[in-house]
Specification:
Length: 279
């Protein structure tokens, strides 16, 4: 049986001129693989320090690959030495949390990746440009084709993470926006039904209305809210202003509000209260 070490040595001899030793010290696996591994390690170790041989069970590798796998995690900064073994580092925990900046920091721990990120990180360039840069700057014998491929894959992973986080952020912003819209509609309905028919204790609801409309950008609605704020004690004027606000709001947000179940439920609830009081 041919030993794996011999095959690796033969590859090194074949891919590099005699005496031209590589000093790039690149991780043998991509950043995406390393991220997947550290997630598994964290899940299995559960905050405890672990022995290198635990990686066999944690990430599903052969014993012969323990040292290379440990080296990958160490070079990217995902693990660090503890008192008795190895543990997930602070950077590793940030990576597990999908922090984009942490992934970038991990890549920059590798000298060559840091160099490429500095020169091409925020630029749209082809793999060929990166390949030519590597051939010009680094010694002959380095497998520049493989290096360029690894780098472009790393950047693609980084960019995909950016898109994912941006989408999540937009979803959260949309949720926050629609939640605030909920409050506006409910408060407006509540106030409308307090004036029609008349009810006591309207001041608190008016204050609530002013508060939830504080971030409103529509000039017409902002103007009406400002007048409501000024005319809090004038009931007849308030009735007119509330009707104007209701119509303006309905016109602007009718598409968003039409399909909302809570709107129908709220109207039914208010109508039911009105009918009960009328009886």
């Amino acid at each position: 049986m041919i030993k794996i070490d011999k095959i690796e040595n033969d590859k090194k001899k074949a891919g590099r001129p005699k005496g031209a030793k590589s000093k790039l010290n690149l991780p043998i696996r991509d950043i995406a693989d390393a991220v997947e591994w550290i997630r598994k390690v964290d899940n299995e170790a559960k905050g405890n320090e672990f022995h290198p041989e635990d990686l066999v069970e944690y990430i599903g590798i052969n014993k012969g690959f323990v040292s290379p796998a440990l080296s990958v995690l160490q070079k990217f900064g995902f693990i660090e030495r503890g008192s008795f073994g190895w543990k997930v580092s602070e950077l590793g925990m940030r990576v597990i949390s999908n922090e984009r900046e942490a992934i970038k920091e991990a890549l920059e721990r590798v000298d060559l990746y840091r160099d490429l990120l500095k020169n091409f990180g925020d630029k749209n360039v082809t793999k060929t440009i990166i390949l030519n840069y590597l051939k010009t700057k680094y010694k002959k014998g380095e497998n520049t084709e493989v290096i360029a491929g690894k780098y472009t894959e790393a950047v693609s992973y980084l960019n995909s993470l950016t898109t994912e986080i941006s989408s999540t952020k937009k979803d959260k912003q949309f949720t926050k926006s629609t939640d605030n819209l909920d409050k506006k509609i409910i408060t407006l309905l509540k106030l409308k039904y307090m004036f029609f028919p008349e009810k006591d204790s309207k001041i608190e609801v008016i204050d609530e209305l002013i508060n939830v409309f504080e971030d409103e950008t529509d000039p017409t609605i902002k103007s009406v809210i400002s007048k409501i704020k000024q005319q809090k004690g004038e009931e007849e004027t308030l009735k007119v202003l509330i009707n104007i606000l209701f119509d303006s709001f309905k016109e602007k947000y009718s598409i968003l509000a039409t399909d909302r179940k809570y709107k129908k439920d709220q109207i039914k609830k208010e109508e039911s209260k009105h009918n009960t009081q009328s009886d």
